[in-house]
Amino acid sequence: MHYFQYKDEQLHAEEVSIKDIVERVGTPAYIYSHATLERHFKAMDDAFAGTPHTICYSVKANSSLGVLKTFINLGGGVDIVSGGELYRALAAGVDPKKVVYSGVGKRDDEIAYALDSGILLFNVESEQELDRIDMVAGHLGKKAGIALRVNPDVDPETHPYITTGLKKAKFGINIERALEQYARAKTLQNLEIIGVDCHIGSQLTKVSPFVDTIKKLKRLVAGVREMGIDLKYLDLGGGLGIQYNDEVPPLPSEYGKAILEETKDLGLHLLFEPGRNLVGNAGILVAKCLFTKKGDEKDFIIIDAGMNDLARPALYGSFHGVQPVVKDQEGTVVADIVGPICESGDFLVKEREVPNFKQGDFVAFMSAGAYGFTMSSNYNSRPRVPEIMVKGDRYEVIREREKVEDLIKGEHLPSFL
Ligand SMILES: *Cc1c(COP(=O)(O)O)cnc(C)c1O
């Protein structure tokens, strides 16, 4: 069951007409389906039923408080990569004991904030970071739970910009040097070594790279235990892909089955950090067609959303499905769908057959719930767009559209001008 469906030629999110929403809140706007968020979380959670595990949703995929609260209500924790994400997750009511903190560049103040908040563990990505966390924990008189993020040198076969587990990546500690670092961590007084962590990339459409990774991690776990370290957690990161176009990613149940098969005898509590898989297909971006333009070589559909609102096509050449909010177009056209930004990279669709949109039509970009709003910016001094959550026959604005006044908030004209 898909929660973005047509009824009487009008696109709906659950029971609510998208046209009704955007006629009230305007365009562009992100619209999320609560039922889809819940279904995706439960599918992931159910895939590991019967095994001790925690789903630590990766906040960077979509950090709206409403989205965070939806998962927290279902028992979820979070994976954060900054102090700002920790602040959001705490504001949404997360249990600090279900927070894991990843990222290659943690600052002292962020480490201290996380320690004061009582998070479960830090996924440590370098030798120097180990020392730093030990030092900050010492100053605060606390013990920091840690896992080492190891880089297993496995190719996830995804886009190079979202590949993180190869030797040449900036992420994690080379698995061949991980044992040395566990030994070193053991000598540091203010650390409690409780886990092994990895995250190999995003939008994976096969199970095999996850399985290959676990095989390597198992050897490491055995080595760490031989040192007398009492490991409790195995964090397998996120990365499970979704369908944007014609890719066929494994179902969470298939992913779960393969992982449980490999990990069943380890006696470790499993942690997962899914982002895209939970939110990607739970959101759409809706824009309005401002103009259509016949070029010499191709046609353009110019809309009121741009690369600052949805960066993925410009950044990775990503595909987003395009659907009319009201189906009343005549035929199709091969066109670029472009935004108002003064950059040639400002396209959401490149040379694709799409409905023959006319001025004033509302255009929905599908699968925009992950890395959509969170990657948006104010480039070209464009206020960021609102976010709306639909639940059944109700909807609410969960983040207001920014106003032009917001664009200069915190700016000061220097006194010498
Ligand atoms: C981005 C990220 C995730 C989430 O990745 P998805 O592909 O969205 O599931 C999980 N863990 C870490 C460390 C990340 O950086």
Please specify the SSE layout and strand pairing:
Blueprint: E1 4-7, E2 10-13, E3 16-17, H1 18-25, E4 29-33, H2 34-46, E5 53-58, H3 65-73, E6 77-80, H4 83-91, E7 99-101, H5 108-117, E8 121-124, H6 127-140, E9 144-151, E10 173-174, H7 175-187, E11 191-197, H8 208-226, E12 233-235, H9 252-263, E13 269-272, H10 276-279, E14 283-294, E15 299-303, H11 312-316, E16 322-324, E17 332-338, E18 347-355, E19 362-365, E20 387-391, E21 394-399, H12 404-407
Parallel strand pairs: 4-20, 5-6, 5-13, 6-7, 7-8, 8-9, 9-10, 9-11, 11-12, 12-13, 15-17
Antiparallel strand pairs: 1-2, 2-3, 4-14, 14-15, 14-19, 16-19, 17-18, 20-21
Q: What percent of the residues sit in helical stretches (DSSP H or I)?
A: 25-40%
Decide which structural class fits the backbone. alpha/beta
What is the CA-based Rg, rounded?
Answer: 23 Å
Number of domains: 2
Present as ligands are: pyridoxal-5'-phosphate
CATH topology of the largest domain: TIM Barrel
Broad CATH class of the largest domain = Alpha Beta
User: What's the total number of strands?
Assistant: 21
* Biggest β-sheet strands, sense, barrel: 9 strands, mixed
Q: Mean pLDDT score, rounded?
A: 96
Helix segment tally: 12
β-strand percent reads 25-35%
- Ranges where pLDDT stays below 50 over 5 or more residues in a row are none
CATH level 4 superfamily of the largest domain: Alanine racemase
What is the CATH architecture assignment of the largest domain?
Alpha-Beta Barrel
Large-scale geometry: globular
**Termini separation (Å)?**
60 Å
